Amino acid sequence: MIEKKKEQVMLEKIIAYIEKYSLIERGDGIVVGVSGGADSVCLLLILVELRKRFLLDLVVVHVHHGIRGKEADEDEEFVRNLASQLEIPFVVERRDVPAFARECGLSEEEAGRAVRYEIFEQVRKCYGFTKVAVAHNKNDCAETVLFHLFRGSGLTGISGISASREKVIRPLLCCSRDEIERFLAERGQLFRTDRTNFLEEYSRNKIRLRVLPYVAKEINDRAVEHIVGTAGMVSEAQEFIEKNVQIMYDKVVSMRNGIYFINADEFRAVDRIIQRGILYQVIVRLAKGKKDIEQKHVELVMELMNRSVGKEVMLPYDIVAVRSYDGIQVCKRECLVRSKQKKKWEFVEVKPGNTYLLEEIGYQISLELVKNEQGAMQIPKNDCTKWFDYDRINNVILVRSRQSGDYLEINDKRGRKKLKDYFIDKKIPRDVRDEIPLLTDGNHVMWIFGDRISERYKVSEMTKNILMVNIMEVKKNGR
Amino acid sequence: MIEKKKEQVMLEKIIAYIEKYSLIERGDGIVVGVSGGADSVCLLLILVELRKRFLLDLVVVHVHHGIRGKEADEDEEFVRNLASQLEIPFVVERRDVPAFARECGLSEEEAGRAVRYEIFEQVRKCYGFTKVAVAHNKNDCAETVLFHLFRGSGLTGISGISASREKVIRPLLCCSRDEIERFLAERGQLFRTDRTNFLEEYSRNKIRLRVLPYVAKEINDRAVEHIVGTAGMVSEAQEFIEKNVQIMYDKVVSMRNGIYFINADEFRAVDRIIQRGILYQVIVRLAKGKKDIEQKHVELVMELMNRSVGKEVMLPYDIVAVRSYDGIQVCKRECLVRSKQKKKWEFVEVKPGNTYLLEEIGYQISLELVKNEQGAMQIPKNDCTKWFDYDRINNVILVRSRQSGDYLEINDKRGRKKLKDYFIDKKIPRDVRDEIPLLTDGNHVMWIFGDRISERYKVSEMTKNILMVNIMEVKKNGR
């Protein structure tokens, strides 16, 4: 009876955890990843217990890594038999993980993980299921935290393992390895032991086999619990900071032609930790991923803010950050070269009924004149096509870069705004202002490409003739 | 020559660190705590090097702990001689740390630390100096992080040691223990070794002697560096969160008569991590300190938010949190008892020229009538004394609790606001609204005690007679 009760306590703890993080809903179909080890066998038994309560559909998936020969075959056989006893469909997938690891330049450990999650997801889709359950426990979480703490991977690294991520759920994350093994012992349930877990050549194994047992015995017997608790707080802190970074990002950063511009004034107004988060985002966007992007790269750009105009730092993936007059520009080196070669280009006159290829500025422009037939046409809402009231145009139409005296109307009260002030308000960095093509009627800017048109030319019910202008980006000439 | 260069590198690193965190300014007077161990001897030599650069005044302070008999005497002698060689004033203070530890219920380690900082501060004041320098290094920081991580002391615990705190500065925090010992070896400078640092009975020593060396050797040789780096990020994250907690605190929490009220709607609108910070603040304010206040107490109150009205949880120091209709009340148990006993009390008529002791509501009130002599008097700006335009009062003046139909004027446009709506806007919890004493003229509320007066009665240039009313809190009758 006492045995029964302990098992019940663990089950209730897991149910509470599932509910706290909404891991499972009634009617879920769950792919259960089962290696045959204690954790995943326990996970399977628990989900079988919960089957009725949550009306679950289950399928067991076992991945054969093509490592550890006969032992691995025996693992497969063990899981197949267990699934059959429990009357749950069984899927096995074989992969040559060592070969995959070599191909991708990953460790076998990393490659195995990538392969497993990929297979689980394939089976999930194939069965039309909703979730993938994996068997991480508290000890795994504590090990991960220490592993990252010792290797230096910042806040994200020490925020532990999360209860769920996309379709993947981890219902055993509230249990310790001891609890899991006691549960299996009480049930008399056998499990397989992966000998590689005991090889001390892996850092993770060293933490599991040496560091944590020593700490639990000699320093604090609830160390795992405490590490997991602190990781949870770090995770929440991290989420909060991330949210604030997203909020501030748009205020601080603007992007044009592949060049990210960080406005110095706006940047200084935010907290340092948010500054770092914003710079990290910019670099990651340019690098198209987090790989190889480290805190030290962020620091380099941070320091650049206090240096003089023209100073630059090199980052991975040929990314370069340059201190400009009013902030920092970050881009791929090729973009920088292009922008350094820029010069003021000549104007081009454009007329309705024609298409012009303006290679120098990288645009093709077409102009067409049509009668305004009430309600027959919808003004398109996109950045490439704009309509203008043709009869309000007083001069020849030019495509050109800015000139002094340029202005536009930005509200229907006919108030003029200097183009220069408009650029300043929009935080367009000085260096790129000359590069922005304009459609103009004398000094009146009809359209700032990629931005707004002047209110003056907006099509209304009174408009008789509509000038439809379409632009298309093309490869720049010789750049 | 190579020796000389390494030493120079370390010195430059320390100078950069001092400048980054503004640890030292020109002309500082610095108390240097020197135990005689490698770290503090190095600190002293470094500060001597920097003496000219920063125009420093130095004094060496050694604390004799009354532990370790002869060895401790030799330590004292060693530091005295070193100070004399360097021609720096030397102060020694003896304390019976074991006795102090027993008295305060602290470990000898904790007691020693408290005693040292106290003595350093005393000497600082006595010399009229500006700073106290202590010799923590990177390893100390990493050890502290692991110590707290294993014991579970949340984000603050793993944010490491800070470069400065009030008057205390830590210029060696950018150096590792190895660097420090190499520096001394190159100089041929001797130092004392505290044998208790090698006793494995202390958790900290276990981390220093066992855990970190194992990790550096087997997992990552720059582990100390990485732990310190991550701690710095946690510290910044913690600061950012703390700042946001302070910003939200006043929106979410109001306090009246020793009862903190947490408004449920406002509370739900903030992030969980900020919610926790706010609750922690409330509990710490009531507990008058952080001692014994743990994350689990915060969790108890968090959970209370989802429970039904009337549920309560007990916290340390006789603090109790109760779920009320519109939020949570947190207070000392005695306040709760008092507030449960409350009943609507009778009105009292008050007249100018008199003082009334209203024991039932815990106030003494005095009223005085004076002529308004232009410019002769300044309207006092405090919560205890208010002035009213006497000639605008139409009825007898009562002190009473609220009644239906009560209103006040909250702007000079003579718009009336229902008292009920005013209370709702100010987020005064329902339960306490009946308890707030009002000074009234019919249904017109002249003054909400502890809050505002009605615009209607404000003294202006036109006022002929001023009613000056003063209230003073007194002990409540029989409560």
From TrEMBL, chains A, B:
tRNA processing among keywords: yes
Domain notes per entry: The N-terminal region contains the highly conserved SGGXDS motif, predicted to be a P-loop motif involved in ATP binding.
Domain of life where this protein originates: Bacteria
Record: residues binding ATP: 35-40
UniProt source species: Velocimicrobium porci
Gene Ontology biological process terms from the UniProt entry: tRNA modification
Annotated NCBIfam families: lysidine_TilS_C, lysidine_TilS_N
Protein name listed in UniProt: tRNA(Ile)-lysidine synthase
Locations listed in the record: Cytoplasm
Pfam family, one: TilS_C
